[in-house]
Specification:
Two copies of one chain form a homodimer. Chain A has about 260 residues and is mostly helical. In chain A, about 70% of the residues lie in helices and about 5% in strands. Chain A folds into two domains: about 10-70, Winged helix-like DNA-binding domain superfamily/Winged helix DNA-binding domain (Arc Repressor Mutant, subunit A, Orthogonal Bundle), CATH 1.10.10.10; about 75-250, GntR ligand-binding domain-like (Four Helix Bundle (Hemerythrin (Met), subunit A), Up-down Bundle). The first copy, chain A, has helices spanning about 10-25, 35-40, 45-60, 75-100, 110-125, 130-150, 155-175, 185-210, 210-235, 240-250, and strands at about 30-35, 60-65, 70. At the A-B interface, helix 3, helix 4 and helix 7 of A face helix 3, helix 4 and helix 7 of B. Chain A binds a DNA duplex (30 and 30 nucleotides) through helix 3.
DNA sequence: CAGCTTGATTTGGGATCCCAAAGTGATATT
DNA sequence: AATATCACTTTGGGATCCCAAATCAAGCTG
């Protein structure tokens, strides 16, 4: 599997635009998407729209409705849990492979800088929108660096694919954010961020010294932390912290209107 | 993620037909696929053909050529290695999840029967075409049972997706099979099958008694056996044993003309 | 004869057309 | 008034058309 990115399908771009809009909440949750309407919105004909819809269907972002048309998928907490579980498991493989890779040294600086950036946010102590975005971006860099540096293209490709659904969930949850933005939440978010970055540090050191077993084990623990966190939402009627989910999903840091 | 299979996209069917033909070697390795030609062959218009091609592109079975058109991907040994590595890693997750699942009991009989069937082949002692197919089918059942019984739909879906490339490789290698069909090869194939089924037995028992750690660990070892085996082909100029690869890829047992 | 240019043909992307199936609503019948 | 039936509308799947880009080939020029 040589280089793919950059000469992907053209209509992948359209799919990306639609996906982005879905995630950003342009359409209603569970809304029916008719091809004609999408044609109006994106100002293209039905052919490229249909190509894009098939791709989005494979990503589980949209579903086929009963009769005709697609509807936007409404992921359950369990859906997110499953997706994150798979992604985390693959990341532990990536950590092991990168620790065994001989060319890993050149990617280490990116990881180190990501850890530093998160530490800077932690030192500042408060988690405003800017700081949150900063931490998200750094977290994404940390994880995606491992995914690409592991040398197995299937890992990064699959992880990217599987991140779309958590992104959709994060997008639909962002509007509830303000209601749950209490001091208590902020404290807990900071705690999670601190714990997560400590794990980052251990993973970094393990990969640096080529300790594949420790790298994989620690990444697994890091992933379990996230899975356990999401699992709490199956019981409590709490609102998911979007920042974590988005950061974990490895998506680009996007600006939310809310 | 509720039930998907059964109401998939219609043109997924066309994609499956084309994929099957590609794997079966109907087209030349690295051949250019023009849409018009595919229209003639499958007697449909360009629209569904294009939809199918996009899906196959995502499966890495075909690639976009430099200028126009798609070409059939020629996977390297390293490609196969990577795909099998990811699949194996996900299977170890599946084994763990199934061991933790409360409804696992109802799927255990399928696994037990698969192990028995492979043992029957081993007892017979020779590995003719029929016996090989029998072992393949049983192996597929063993693995796919775990994938579906694990309860995480992403695992099975992703594994299925990622199996297409090894299938393509297996298909293109099937023609070399006769040249490498020596007594020595048969001996080794039998040895691998015996080893593999012993691992199956351990995995089965671990899942049965709910020992998630052991189930995952043994599945991991089972997967590493396969990865190590494939890795030998990077050094030696040997020809891959198709039966193992196909069985491991979890594909339907197909009949080869060769 | 080599290299460049230009015209013809292939080919893929997008738009439009046609049709069948499913949804919708109105009307007629009991 | 309730229900069943039928016409009308919506909508998605497939086929065809158009166009632009790219490939190929022949011819022209240095």
């Amino acid at each position: 599997m040589r280089e793919h990115r950059g000469m992907e399908s053209i209509d992948t771009e359209l799919a990306a635009r639609i996906r982005q809009d879905i995630i950003m909440g342009v359409f209603e949750e569970g809304e029916r998407l008719s091809e004609a309407r999408l044609c109006d919105i994106y100002e293209v004909s039905r052919t490229p729209i249909r190509l894009a819809l098939r791709l989005l269907e494979r990503e589980r972002i949209i579903r086929r409705g009963e009769g005709r048309g697609y509807i936007i998928y409404s992921p359950t907490v369990d859906d997110i849990l499953q997706a994150v579980q798979v992604r985390g498991h693959l990341e532990s493989l990536a950590a092991r492979l990168m620790a065994q890779s001989e060319t890993r040294a050149q990617s280490l600086p990116h990881m180190a800088r990501a850890i530093e950036n998160i530490n800077a946010v932690l030192d500042a102590g408060n988690l405003g929108d800017a700081a949150r975005r900063e931490a998200q971006a750094a977290n994404k860099i940390f994880h995606s660096t491992i995914l690409t540096a592991c040398g197995n293209d299937y890992v990064s490709f699959t992880c990217e694919q599987i991140s779309h659904l958590p992104m959709l969930a994060a997008g639909s949850m962002v509007f509830d954010r303000s209601t749950s933005e209490t001091q208590d939440h902020m404290e807990r978010a900071l705690f999670r961020l601190r714990l997560g970055n400590a794990q980052h540090q251990v993973i970094f050191e393990a990969i640096e010294k080529g300790d594949a077993v420790r790298a994989e084990g620690m990444m697994r623990e890091h992933s379990h932390t996230m899975v356990d966190y999401i699992r709490t939402f199956e019981r409590k009627d709490d609102s998911l912290t979007v920042a974590d989910l988005i950061a974990y999903s490895g998506a680009e840091p996007v600006t939310f209107s809310g």
